[in-house]
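Suppose a colleague, Dr. K., hands you the sequence of a protein chain of 154 amino acids and asks what its three-dimensional shape might be. Before reaching for any lab equipment, you can write down a predicted structure in token form. Begin with the sequence itself:
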Amino acid sequence: MDIDTYEDFKEIRVRDVYIVDVFTDPTPVVLLEDLQGNMLPIYIGHLEALSIGNVIKNISPPRPLAHDLILTIFERLDVKIEGVLIDEKVDKIYYARLLIKKDNAIMQFDARPSDCIALALRVGAPIRVRKNVLENSEVEMSRLEGARVINIFG
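The predicted structure, expressed as tokens, is then:
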């Protein structure tokens, strides 16, 4: 894929991180939103929710989290995060690629969307979702109807 062209993608923002009580099983969800208000919920792990929530709420933990460590390593190696592409969903699992730049070469790494989002938010890198993945998110949004939502950061 030519990563200089993003016609099949829409840039999104992270709306917030929530704990959703689905069938009495509290699960963290990161809610992504495009400029038209289309939303995409992605279920994530508790540690990733904490990491993303810290960035959204501008909270600095007393010790670096894994995503902070990765950025420190990238900085010392002169590596820059170019962006995130969330480009596929297979069997209810979302797939993403982290785009990083070293010298003039852009490299892509398969990664969980939650890790990509946590890293991109820390450096202000764009997060893009393939249009057909976003269009199919209505099913995921309907699963949240009637769920108890708790904003974990107030």
